[in-house]
């Protein structure tokens, strides 16, 4: 199983990947997780990849090879949507993103 999770810093992308990884381990599968933070501390993008199976050699998911894309922010998900087969996207996030910098 190859899963890609995209979002912005502070949304729980890393926590989501850790939870999925723990679930796959409970199922007896080997798991590899790759975290790409980008500018996550400043609301920038975060891409996390989770791979699980009998034997997993690399944590990286090649474009077009993911079984599932989870988009915590639709803007980030749309950057990837052409590359992946199935996706879950949060479409109720645009107001929160535009107001994120106003509470500093």
Give an account of the 3D structure.
26% of the residues lie in helices and 29% in strands. By secondary structure, it is α/β, with parallel strands linked by helices. The chain has a five-stranded mixed sheet with strand order 2-3-1-4-5, sandwiched between helices. The longest helix is centred in the first third of the chain and has 14 residues, at 13-26. The radius of gyration is 14 Å and the shape is globular. The chain starts with a strand and ends in a 5-residue tail after the last helix. Residues 95-104 have low confidence and may be disordered.
Total beta-strand segments: 5
Number of domains: 1
- Sheet-strand content, in percent, reads 25-35%
Briefly note the structural class of the backbone: alpha/beta
Strand order, main sheet: write it out.
Answer: 2-3-1-4-5
Rg over CA atoms, rounded to whole Å, is: 14 Å
SS field, number of helical segments = 3
Mean pLDDT: 75
Q: List the helices and strands in order.
A: EHEEEHEH
Low-confidence stretches: 95-104
Calculate the terminal CA-CA distance, rounded to whole Å.
Answer: 39 Å
Share of helix among residues? 25-40%
- What global shape is seen? globular
**Largest sheet, if any?**
5 strands, mixed
């Amino acid at each position: 199983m190859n899963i890609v999770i995209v979002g912005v810093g502070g949304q729980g992308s890393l926590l989501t990947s850790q939870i999925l990884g723990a679930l796959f381990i409970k199922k007896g599968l080997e798991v590899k997780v790759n975290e790409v933070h980008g500018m996550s501390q400043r609301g920038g993008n975060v891409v996390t990849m989770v791979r699980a199976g009998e034997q997993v050699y690399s944590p990286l998911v090649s474009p077009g090879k993911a079984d599932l894309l989870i988009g915590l922010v639709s803007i980030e998900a749309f950057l990837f949507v052409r590359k992946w087969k199935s996706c879950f996207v949060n479409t109720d996030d645009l107001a929160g993103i535009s107001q994120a910098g106003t509470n500093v």
